[in-house]
Structure formats: C-alpha cells, structure tokens
Write a structure and sequence with these properties.
- This protein is of the alpha+beta class.
- The protein has one domain: Aminopeptidase (3-Layer(aba) Sandwich), CATH 3.40.630.
- Helix content is 23%, strand content 35%.
- Strand 6 and strand 7 form a beta hairpin.
- The longest helix has 14 residues.
- The site of acetyl coenzyme *A has 23 residues, from strand 4, helix 3, strand 5 and helix 4.
Amino acid sequence: STKPKICYRPIRPSDLETLEHIHTKVFPVRYEATFFHDVVNGCDIVSWGVVDSNRPDGRCDELIGFVTARVVFAKESEIVDLLGYDSAKSDQTVVYILTLGVVDTYRKLGIASSLIKEVIKYASSIPTCRAVYLHVISYNKPAIFLYKKMSFKCIRRLQEFYLINGLHYDSYLFMYYLLPA
Ligand code: ACO
C-alpha cells in the first residue's frame, strides 16, 4: 500500500540539503546558510522532523516536514509586555517558532497541527516558559487558520515586517499562552 505512514524524528546533519530545499520551496523569505547549519546541529535551536516511512519512491527517511524554534528570555522578547507582571523576572522564557513547513503533497493531513502540539508540549515541559509565539505573513491564510485552530491568539499586526523582492508585507504576531505552573 502507498498510504503514508507519518513518523516524527529529530532533525540531523544528513537532513541539511533537504531542509534547505524545502525552506526555499515553501517560504518567500530566504534564510542564511548558518540558519540551516544551526538547525541540523541543534545549535541554540530545537526542531522536529517528519518523514513518510511508507513512501512509494522509497525515500522513507527523507524529511517532508519540520518545525524549528528557539527558547528566548521573555524580557528580551517582543512579547514581554503581554505576559504579566513577573515576566521581566530574569529566568522567564518563551518559545519562538522560527519556521514550520510541510511539503505540498502531504498537506491537510494534520502534520503541521501535530508539529505545533510537539512544540507546545516541549514548551510546557520548561518550568520557566510562559508562551509560544511566532510571526506569519498577513496573506498566509492556511497558516493563519492553523494557528487559530490551535488556540493561538492574534496579538498584533506589524506593519511592513517583511521585505520580499523589494515589496513590504505586514505580519501577524500569534501567541499561545501557557498556564503558569
Ligand atoms: N486552507 C485553509 N486552511 C488550512 C489550509 C488551507 N489550504 N491548510 C491548513 N489549514 C488549516 C485548517 O484550519 C486545518 O484544519 P482542518 O484540516 O481541520 O480544516 C489546519 O490548518 C491544520 O492543518 P494541517 O493539516 O495540520 O496543516 P498542514 O500539515 O497542511 O500544514 C502549513 C499547514 C504548515 C501552513 C502548510 O500549508 C505549509 O507548509 N505551507 C507553506 C509554509 C508555511 O506557510 N508555513 C507557515 C509559515 S509561518 C511560520 O513558519 C512561523
């Protein structure tokens, strides 16, 4: 059978080329080589990968999706003002999702939802963590629907946040509050 068998696994150095290829394909924004290097080597970035271990072409270990994120201090994040009175305390953190993507032939199967759940689970396991947040370009309807469905709240609209091929685009800041421990 060619029914996909979706598996989640860590991202590793051998994923470098595929990871870069998918980013270039699915995002309008370009990322530096150092970003991909940091993801596959886990340098200050946490990530989760997705493969289809039942792929008809046999490339069962090749990434078809990913999420990348970074743990940052709440007081150094742009959402410190939204977190309440003690968020400026030195040890408070938040998780910032950098990139989330699924290869187009594997979309609408719930993969991105599962990846977001992993990030929320991870963030919840960090006692100092208060929230998960991200930016999304204002015209990206599928992603906006996804974050709303996952109970993220749209907190603000940032004017001309992105510059792509000489044109400016706004972004939305979405945030998921974690309950205080
Ligand atoms: N149209 C409308 N809503 C959609 C669509 C769509 N095409 N795709 C997903 N959604 C919404 C729906 O609410 C859906 O729930 P439903 O199936 O119950 O209707 C919900 O998202 C969950 O869908 P998933 O199947 O979990 O999402 P999928 O695995 O297809 O991935 C993603 C969604 C990541 C946005 C994918 O379309 C993609 O990779 N797009 C290109 C890259 C991208 O835009 N990434 C996010 C940018 S923001 C960032 O990276 C921080």
